[in-house]
Amino acid sequence: MRAGIQRGLCESNAVCVALAPDVFDLDEDGIAVTIVDELDEAQVDSVESAIPSCPRAAVFLRKDESDA
Ligand code: SF4
Question: Which residue puts its alpha carbon closest to atom 2 of ligand 1?
Answer without folding.
Answer: 54
